[in-house]
Each structure stands twice: as structure tokens, then as C-alpha cells.
Design a protein that fits this description.
Blueprint: H1 3-24, H2 31-37, H3 42-48, H4 52-76, H5 81-97, H6 105-112, H7 119-143, H8 152-173, H9 175-192
DNA-binding region: 30-49
Keywords: DNA-binding, Transcription, Transcription regulation
Domain HTH tetR-type: 7-67
């Protein structure tokens, strides 16, 4: 078996598991279910993922990489820090409007892995720390030397909290309404805090 074949098998297993984890929950989906939906053997699975936890971590790392790339692209294409924050907000509202959207993969994983020492929970917390730090840097640039300058870390935490609410509320209240409320909240942070 070639490396490319093993890599292809790994990616198929990861894609199948990721879709199932996202739609149905991590703990609800077992290895048997993943194997049933991916034409693969148990030996192939365990060659690529020594445990289900390894698979879960790989899934969340993939979501993390995707999120970081989307945020980086949004920031790089923006003409100003305020526009960069709006572009990051657009990434959130675009996610909400996706028909396949089922909430935030990290919030869902955090609910399933509450132990702060668990590697899955630590990965979720690392992702969140990166996200808030990125927002903090952008708010620091927006606020600059304004005499009404707020604390950038407070604004970043506020925006992260609004994102969390949007991610959980969109399914209940509708992506359009929640997305619009999220955009208004972001504009409020940009205009009221500097």
C-alpha cells in the first residue's frame, strides 16, 4: 500500500467522521459507525488513528485550520482594522447562512468534553484563545489612541460572546435574524468603544 493510498484512506475516514461528529455529536458516533460509512477496515482505521480520541483531535485540528485560514483571508483583504473586524464578522454570518450549519464545532465539543485536562477540551481552549487574541489585536488597532478608548480585550471577549450566541441561536431564531443582530452588535462595538 502506498503512502498516497494511506493518506487517501486517512482523509476519507476523517471526512466521514468529521461530518458525523458535526451533525450527530462526537460521543454519539462510534468507530463502528464510521467504518460502516467509510469503505475501510478496522486495521486501516487504527493505522491512521490509534484511538477515537486521535480521530477527534484530528477533526478539530482541521476545523481550527479552516477557521484560521478564513479569518486570515478576511483580515488580509480588509483596507482597515475596522473593516477587518467586519470581514471576520462576515465569516461568522456566512457560516450561519450555510444550509449545512449545525452550530460551532468547538462549542459542541466543549459541551461533550467538560474536563479541563482532557486533550479535546485543551484543543478547544487553545482555539478559543487564538480567536480572542486575534480579535484583541484588531480592536487594539481600531481603538488606537482614542480618548474614549475601551479595553481591546474586553471588546474581543464581547464579540466572541456574541459569536457564541449567534452560533447557538441561529438554529432556533433563524440565520437571517441572528446574523443581522450579530452585525448590529459588531457595529455597536466599533462605534461605541472608540
Amino acid at each position: 500500500m502506498t503512502t498516497a493510498t494511506r493518506s487517501g484512506a486517512r482523509e476519507r475516514l476523517l471526512a466521514t467522521a468529521g461530518g458525523l461528529f458535526y451533525r450527530e455529536g462526537i460521543r454519539a458516533v462510534g468507530v463502528e459507525r464510521i467504518l460502516a460509512e467509510t469503505p475501510s477496515t478496522r486495521a486501516t482505521f487504527y493505522r491512521h488513528f490509534p484511538s477515537k480520541e486521535d480521530l477527534v483531535l484530528a477533526y478539530l485540528r482541521g476545523v481550527d485550520e479552516h477557521t484560521r485560514a478564513a479569518v486570515a483571508a478576511a483580515v488580509e483583504g480588509a483596507p482597515s482594522p475596522a473593516d477587518a473586524l467586519r470581514a471576520v464578522g462576515a465569516v461568522v454570518t456566512d457560516d450561519l447562512a450555510d444550509p449545512a450549519f449545525r452550530g460551532c464545532a468547538f462549542l459542541k465539543a466543549a459541551a461533550e468534553y467538560p474536563d479541563p485536562a482532557d486533550p479535546v477540551r485543551r484543543l478547544v481552549l487553545d482555539h478559543r484563545a487564538w480567536y480572542v487574541a486575534t480579535l484583541t489585536e484588531l480592536f487594539a488597532e481600531v481603538f488606537g489612541g482614542s480618548p474614549r478608548r475601551g479595553r481591546p480585550e474586553d471588546a474581543a471577549r464581547h464579540l466572541a460572546m456574541m459569536r457564541d450566541g449567534a452560533m447557538t441561536g441561529a438554529d432556533l431564531d433563524g440565520a437571517g435574524e441572528v446574523g443581522e443582530a450579530f452585525r448590529r452588535g459588531l457595529e455597536g462595538l466599533l462605534t461605541m468603544l472608540h
